[in-house]
UniProtKB/TrEMBL annotation:
The lineage of its organism: Bacteria, Pseudomonadati, Pseudomonadota, Betaproteobacteria, Burkholderiales. Keywords: Metal-binding. This is VOC family protein. Coiled coil: none annotated. The keyword Metal-binding applies. GO terms for molecular function: lactoylglutathione lyase activity; metal ion binding. Pfam families: Glyoxalase. Signal peptide: none annotated. InterPro entries: Glyas_Bleomycin-R_OHBP_Dase, Glyas_Fos-R_dOase_dom, Glyoxalase_1_CS, VOC_core. Residues 157-274 form the VOC domain. It comes from the Bacteria.
Protein backbone atom coordinates (compact mmCIF):
# COMPACT_ATOMS: atom_id res chain seq x y z
CA UNK A 1 0.00 0.00 0.00
CA UNK A 2 1.17 3.56 -0.71
CA UNK A 3 -0.09 6.59 1.11
CA UNK A 4 0.49 10.30 0.60
CA UNK A 5 2.50 10.72 3.81
CA UNK A 6 4.20 14.13 3.80
CA UNK A 7 6.78 13.42 6.50
CA UNK A 8 6.98 13.77 10.27
CA UNK A 9 4.78 16.59 11.61
CA UNK A 10 5.64 16.10 15.29
CA UNK A 11 7.91 14.06 17.53
CA UNK A 12 6.60 13.57 21.05
CA UNK A 13 9.05 13.06 23.92
CA UNK A 14 8.50 12.09 27.55
CA UNK A 15 11.46 13.58 29.38
CA UNK A 16 13.04 13.73 32.82
CA UNK A 17 13.82 17.45 32.80
CA UNK A 18 11.11 19.51 31.07
CA UNK A 19 12.83 22.78 31.89
CA UNK A 20 16.19 21.77 30.37
CA UNK A 21 14.48 20.37 27.25
CA UNK A 22 12.39 23.54 26.84
CA UNK A 23 15.47 25.71 27.13
CA UNK A 24 17.37 23.50 24.70
CA UNK A 25 14.71 23.63 21.98
CA UNK A 26 14.23 27.37 22.42
CA UNK A 27 17.97 27.92 22.11
CA UNK A 28 17.98 25.61 19.06
CA UNK A 29 15.61 28.08 17.41
CA UNK A 30 12.13 26.57 17.76
CA UNK A 31 9.26 28.78 19.00
CA UNK A 32 7.68 27.73 22.34
CA UNK A 33 3.87 27.45 22.15
CA UNK A 34 1.74 26.84 25.26
CA UNK A 35 4.68 25.75 27.37
CA UNK A 36 4.15 25.08 31.09
CA UNK A 37 5.98 22.98 33.69
CA UNK A 38 4.16 19.97 32.13
CA UNK A 39 5.73 20.66 28.71
CA UNK A 40 4.48 22.10 25.44
CA UNK A 41 5.12 22.51 21.71
CA UNK A 42 8.23 23.89 20.08
CA UNK A 43 7.49 24.88 16.50
CA UNK A 44 9.46 25.46 13.34
CA UNK A 45 8.34 28.16 10.91
CA UNK A 46 5.87 25.82 9.16
CA UNK A 47 4.25 24.57 12.41
CA UNK A 48 5.96 21.18 12.54
CA UNK A 49 7.15 20.61 16.08
CA UNK A 50 8.80 18.80 18.92
CA UNK A 51 6.30 18.12 21.70
CA UNK A 52 7.74 17.81 25.22
CA UNK A 53 5.87 16.08 28.07
CA UNK A 54 6.91 14.72 31.44
CA UNK A 55 8.04 11.12 31.31
CA UNK A 56 5.16 10.08 33.61
CA UNK A 57 2.44 11.93 31.64
CA UNK A 58 -0.45 9.39 31.47
CA UNK A 59 -1.59 10.77 28.10
CA UNK A 60 1.59 9.52 26.40
CA UNK A 61 1.82 6.13 24.65
CA UNK A 62 3.73 3.61 26.76
CA UNK A 63 7.52 3.88 26.36
CA UNK A 64 9.67 1.34 24.56
CA UNK A 65 11.19 -1.26 26.93
CA UNK A 66 14.55 0.50 26.52
CA UNK A 67 13.17 3.68 28.09
CA UNK A 68 13.91 5.83 25.01
CA UNK A 69 12.43 9.29 25.57
CA UNK A 70 10.83 9.26 22.10
CA UNK A 71 7.20 8.36 22.75
CA UNK A 72 5.58 8.96 19.36
CA UNK A 73 6.31 9.95 15.76
CA UNK A 74 3.33 11.67 14.18
CA UNK A 75 3.16 11.84 10.38
CA UNK A 76 1.21 14.46 8.47
CA UNK A 77 -1.16 13.51 5.66
CA UNK A 78 -2.99 15.89 3.30
CA UNK A 79 -6.60 14.76 3.71
CA UNK A 80 -9.10 12.68 5.67
CA UNK A 81 -9.33 10.02 2.95
CA UNK A 82 -5.63 9.25 3.39
CA UNK A 83 -6.02 9.12 7.17
CA UNK A 84 -8.98 6.72 6.84
CA UNK A 85 -7.08 4.54 4.38
CA UNK A 86 -4.06 4.26 6.71
CA UNK A 87 -6.38 3.38 9.62
CA UNK A 88 -7.99 0.64 7.50
CA UNK A 89 -4.64 -0.77 6.37
CA UNK A 90 -3.04 -0.87 9.83
CA UNK A 91 -6.32 -2.02 11.41
CA UNK A 92 -6.01 -5.30 9.52
CA UNK A 93 -3.52 -6.66 12.05
CA UNK A 94 -3.12 -4.21 14.94
CA UNK A 95 -4.97 -1.87 17.21
CA UNK A 96 -5.61 1.58 15.74
CA UNK A 97 -6.97 4.23 18.10
CA UNK A 98 -8.69 7.42 17.04
CA UNK A 99 -7.82 10.25 19.44
CA UNK A 100 -10.11 13.19 20.36
CA UNK A 101 -8.17 15.48 17.98
CA UNK A 102 -9.04 13.22 15.04
CA UNK A 103 -5.55 11.77 14.67
CA UNK A 104 -4.95 8.01 14.76
CA UNK A 105 -2.40 6.07 16.78
CA UNK A 106 -0.85 2.62 16.25
CA UNK A 107 2.50 0.89 16.61
CA UNK A 108 4.97 -0.20 13.96
CA UNK A 109 6.44 -3.71 13.87
CA UNK A 110 9.31 -2.70 16.19
CA UNK A 111 6.93 -1.21 18.78
CA UNK A 112 7.48 2.49 18.00
CA UNK A 113 4.28 4.46 18.59
CA UNK A 114 3.08 6.16 15.40
CA UNK A 115 0.51 8.88 14.91
CA UNK A 116 -1.09 10.08 11.68
CA UNK A 117 -2.94 13.37 11.42
CA UNK A 118 -4.14 15.99 8.97
CA UNK A 119 -0.92 17.88 8.51
CA UNK A 120 -0.12 20.90 10.65
CA UNK A 121 2.30 22.17 7.96
CA UNK A 122 1.66 25.75 6.91
CA UNK A 123 2.86 26.51 3.37
CA UNK A 124 6.09 28.49 3.54
CA UNK A 125 6.81 31.34 1.17
CA UNK A 126 10.45 32.08 2.01
CA UNK A 127 13.54 32.84 0.02
CA UNK A 128 16.28 30.29 -0.45
CA UNK A 129 19.67 31.26 0.87
CA UNK A 130 20.93 33.56 -1.92
CA UNK A 131 24.36 32.92 -3.42
CA UNK A 132 26.36 34.96 -5.93
CA UNK A 133 28.26 32.70 -8.29
CA UNK A 134 30.39 33.74 -11.28
CA UNK A 135 28.73 32.66 -14.51
CA UNK A 136 25.25 32.65 -12.99
CA UNK A 137 22.80 35.49 -12.43
CA UNK A 138 23.35 37.10 -9.01
CA UNK A 139 20.98 35.91 -6.34
CA UNK A 140 21.87 38.94 -4.20
CA UNK A 141 21.91 42.24 -6.02
CA UNK A 142 24.14 45.24 -5.36
CA UNK A 143 24.23 46.36 -1.72
CA UNK A 144 22.34 43.33 -0.42
CA UNK A 145 24.40 41.93 2.44
CA UNK A 146 24.93 38.16 2.66
CA UNK A 147 25.62 37.67 6.34
CA UNK A 148 25.44 39.56 9.64
CA UNK A 149 25.59 38.56 13.27
CA UNK A 150 21.97 39.63 13.82
CA UNK A 151 20.21 37.78 11.00
CA UNK A 152 17.71 35.06 11.85
CA UNK A 153 18.69 31.45 11.30
CA UNK A 154 15.52 29.60 12.21
CA UNK A 155 14.47 25.99 11.63
CA UNK A 156 11.97 25.90 8.76
CA UNK A 157 10.48 22.41 8.89
CA UNK A 158 10.92 19.06 10.65
CA UNK A 159 13.07 17.03 8.27
CA UNK A 160 13.76 13.52 9.51
CA UNK A 161 14.07 11.12 12.39
CA UNK A 162 16.51 8.23 12.80
CA UNK A 163 15.65 5.06 14.69
CA UNK A 164 17.85 2.41 16.24
CA UNK A 165 16.02 -0.85 15.50
CA UNK A 166 16.73 -4.45 16.58
CA UNK A 167 15.61 -6.00 13.23
CA UNK A 168 16.23 -3.62 10.35
CA UNK A 169 14.85 -6.00 7.70
CA UNK A 170 11.55 -6.34 9.52
CA UNK A 171 11.41 -2.63 10.31
CA UNK A 172 12.05 -1.65 6.69
CA UNK A 173 9.42 -4.11 5.44
CA UNK A 174 6.77 -2.45 7.61
CA UNK A 175 7.41 1.04 6.23
CA UNK A 176 7.78 -0.14 2.63
CA UNK A 177 5.00 -2.71 2.43
CA UNK A 178 2.42 -1.22 4.77
CA UNK A 179 2.93 2.52 4.30
CA UNK A 180 4.57 2.81 0.87
CA UNK A 181 7.93 4.32 1.88
CA UNK A 182 10.77 3.85 -0.67
CA UNK A 183 14.44 3.16 -0.06
CA UNK A 184 16.48 5.95 -1.67
CA UNK A 185 19.94 4.75 -0.54
CA UNK A 186 21.29 2.10 1.81
CA UNK A 187 24.25 1.53 4.11
CA UNK A 188 25.04 -2.18 3.80
CA UNK A 189 24.23 -4.04 6.98
CA UNK A 190 23.23 -0.82 8.73
CA UNK A 191 19.97 0.23 7.14
CA UNK A 192 17.95 2.15 4.57
CA UNK A 193 17.15 5.81 4.01
CA UNK A 194 13.39 5.91 3.54
CA UNK A 195 11.12 8.38 1.74
CA UNK A 196 7.31 8.39 2.03
CA UNK A 197 5.22 9.06 -1.10
CA UNK A 198 4.20 12.62 -0.18
CA UNK A 199 7.67 14.20 -0.37
CA UNK A 200 10.70 14.22 -2.65
CA UNK A 201 13.17 14.66 0.23
CA UNK A 202 15.96 12.06 0.17
CA UNK A 203 14.80 10.72 3.52
CA UNK A 204 12.43 11.47 6.34
CA UNK A 205 13.35 8.23 8.14
CA UNK A 206 16.67 6.39 8.45
CA UNK A 207 16.93 3.01 10.19
CA UNK A 208 20.06 1.73 11.93
CA UNK A 209 20.47 -1.89 13.02
CA UNK A 210 21.53 -2.11 16.67
CA UNK A 211 21.32 -4.57 19.54
CA UNK A 212 17.82 -4.59 21.12
CA UNK A 213 18.90 -2.71 24.25
CA UNK A 214 19.64 0.37 22.11
CA UNK A 215 16.22 0.61 20.44
CA UNK A 216 15.04 4.20 20.24
CA UNK A 217 15.87 7.45 18.52
CA UNK A 218 19.38 8.34 17.34
CA UNK A 219 18.59 11.89 16.20
CA UNK A 220 16.08 14.27 14.70
CA UNK A 221 16.65 17.37 12.62
CA UNK A 222 14.99 20.40 11.09
CA UNK A 223 15.75 21.84 7.64
CA UNK A 224 17.41 25.25 7.67
CA UNK A 225 17.42 27.74 4.77
CA UNK A 226 20.88 26.69 3.61
CA UNK A 227 24.47 26.06 4.67
CA UNK A 228 24.99 29.52 6.15
CA UNK A 229 22.03 29.00 8.46
CA UNK A 230 23.32 25.58 9.52
CA UNK A 231 26.69 27.12 10.36
CA UNK A 232 25.34 30.28 11.96
CA UNK A 233 22.61 28.57 14.01
CA UNK A 234 25.08 25.88 15.06
CA UNK A 235 27.68 28.45 15.99
CA UNK A 236 25.20 30.32 18.19
CA UNK A 237 24.07 27.06 19.75
CA UNK A 238 27.64 26.07 20.58
CA UNK A 239 28.28 29.54 22.01
CA UNK A 240 25.39 28.91 24.45
CA UNK A 241 27.31 25.92 25.79
CA UNK A 242 25.75 23.03 23.91
CA UNK A 243 28.20 20.33 22.92
CA UNK A 244 28.93 19.63 19.28
CA UNK A 245 28.85 15.90 18.50
CA UNK A 246 29.55 15.74 14.73
CA UNK A 247 29.99 18.52 12.25
CA UNK A 248 29.63 20.85 10.60
CA UNK A 249 30.01 18.90 7.39
CA UNK A 250 28.13 17.65 4.35
CA UNK A 251 26.72 14.17 3.98
CA UNK A 252 27.13 12.13 0.80
CA UNK A 253 23.81 10.22 0.75
CA UNK A 254 21.26 13.06 0.65
CA UNK A 255 23.92 15.79 0.16
CA UNK A 256 22.56 17.56 3.24
CA UNK A 257 24.78 19.86 5.27
CA UNK A 258 24.76 18.72 8.88
CA UNK A 259 25.76 19.67 12.40
CA UNK A 260 24.83 17.39 15.31
CA UNK A 261 24.69 18.30 19.00
CA UNK A 262 24.24 16.40 22.23
CA UNK A 263 20.90 16.97 23.96
CA UNK A 264 18.88 16.24 27.11
CA UNK A 265 16.52 14.05 25.00
CA UNK A 266 18.82 11.02 25.17
CA UNK A 267 19.56 11.46 21.44
CA UNK A 268 21.43 13.79 19.14
CA UNK A 269 19.79 16.80 17.54
CA UNK A 270 20.88 18.06 14.13
CA UNK A 271 20.63 21.15 11.96
CA UNK A 272 20.48 20.27 8.27
CA UNK A 273 20.03 21.98 4.89
CA UNK A 274 19.96 21.50 1.14
CA UNK A 275 18.97 17.85 0.96
CA UNK A 276 18.71 16.11 -2.44
CA UNK A 277 15.27 15.46 -3.91
CA UNK A 278 14.46 12.16 -5.57
CA UNK A 279 11.49 10.89 -7.53
CA UNK A 280 10.46 7.42 -8.66
CA UNK A 281 13.15 7.39 -11.39
CA UNK A 282 15.92 7.28 -8.77
CA UNK A 283 17.84 4.02 -8.31
CA UNK A 284 19.01 3.51 -4.73
CA UNK A 285 22.76 3.40 -4.14
CA UNK A 286 24.45 1.19 -1.57
CA UNK A 287 27.71 1.58 0.33
CA UNK A 288 29.23 0.25 3.54
CA UNK A 289 28.74 2.70 6.40
CA UNK A 290 31.94 4.49 7.40
CA UNK A 291 33.73 7.81 7.55
CA UNK A 292 34.47 7.89 3.81
CA UNK A 293 30.88 7.19 2.81
CA UNK A 294 29.16 9.39 5.40
CA UNK A 295 30.47 12.80 4.46
CA UNK A 296 32.17 14.73 1.67
CA UNK A 297 33.95 16.93 4.20
CA UNK A 298 33.93 17.59 7.91
CA UNK A 299 34.92 20.60 9.98
CA UNK A 300 35.27 21.15 13.68
CA UNK A 301 33.83 23.95 15.75
CA UNK A 302 36.28 26.45 17.26
CA UNK A 303 36.07 29.79 18.99
CA UNK A 304 36.18 32.99 16.99
CA UNK A 305 39.78 33.92 16.34
CA UNK A 306 41.84 36.64 14.68
CA UNK A 307 45.45 36.55 13.52
CA UNK A 308 47.07 39.14 15.74
CA UNK A 309 49.87 39.75 18.26
CA UNK A 310 53.43 38.47 18.27
CA UNK A 311 54.32 34.99 17.05
CA UNK A 312 53.81 32.32 19.72
CA UNK A 313 56.88 31.55 21.84
CA UNK A 314 58.70 28.33 21.05
CA UNK A 315 57.17 25.49 23.05
CA UNK A 316 54.00 27.46 23.82
CA UNK A 317 50.63 25.80 23.18
FE1 LIG B 1 20.29 13.40 9.93
Amino acid sequence: MTFEILGPDELVFGVDDVEACAQYLTDYGLAPVGVTSAGGRFEALDGTAIVVRRRDDPALPAPLPTGSMLRKTTYGVPDQATLDAIAAELGRDREVTTLPDGSIEARDDMGFALGFRLTVRKPLDLRAEPVNSPGAAPQRGPNEIGVSTTRDALPRTLSHVVYFVPDVTKAEAFYVERLGFRCTDRFTGTGPFLQPAGTLDHHTLFLIQTPPFMQGIEHFTFHMAGPTDVLQAGYRFAAKGYQSFWGPGRHLFGSNWFWYFNSPFGCHVEYDADMDLHDREWVAREAPAGADTSQAFLFQHRQLWFPSGPPPKAGAH
